[in-house]
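PT: before anyone asks, these are the final sequences, not the draft ones from last week. 263 residues across everything. Please model them as a single complex and drop the result in this thread when it's through.
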Amino acid sequence: MRLIIHENYGKACRWAASYIAGRINSYAQNKPFVLGLPTGSSPLGIYKEFIGMCKEGKLSFKNVRTFNMDEYSGLGASHPQSYRYFMMENLFNHIDIDLKHIHILDGMAKEPERECKLYEEAIAAEGGIELFLGGMGSDGHIAFNEPGSSLVSRTRIKTLTEETKAANARFFDGDISRVPLTALTVGVGTVMDAREVLIIVSGRNKARALKAVVEEGVNHLWTLSCLQMHQRAIIVCDEDASDELKAGTVRYFKDIERQAIRS
Ligand code: GLP
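LR: through. Structure below.
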């Protein structure tokens, strides 16, 4: 695992956006680049960078297919708190992607289990995900894989924890009772199948979880710790998020990155 610590959120996002743009632009395969995407406040800076790069002609999403991580149950495309709405507002409406090429789980699906199964099939039909961009919940979850989720789980319906509902209540006028009780989410195994995973983590409120994910063992209580078992995983964070890491851990990962830049 690479851990790349930047001085602040803006620098972390610029690094992550330019890394992903480089991967898309240099993708030499004769097939589309399949990109997994998250919602939440963490990726917003990266999305702004993508939009800027597209406007300047430095990046194009014409050869990109996207799969989002998750969606709240019971919220349709026109609901301002649905993840589909979020993605349209914060990214897709501003870049040159063909809307036929975006995939987001349908929170209104009449048969949600079938919807989840079809989602896994759609990912497989595109040849799997090349790079999954993600964020992390304050309890160390990835997508909506709450503590205790199976580390080999696939796309399915999950019940949200009180901590996640409380964290996301800010998007529902601070009213936790309006946060949906369940969501459709890719599984930990779905994320792990991606050929590369890049996670953006920002803020002091994520420091405890980042410590567990990086310094402790693989553990279903911090589902992002699964990354320790991935062959190509990067966590990009700001200094606030690295606050609880041991000084030696920070020094070690910073040294490795410095050496990589020199070589
Ligand atoms: C939700 C989403 C996750 C996201 C997390 C953190 O639980 N399902 O994908 O990583 O929130 O969100 P934020 O980036 O706003 O802290």
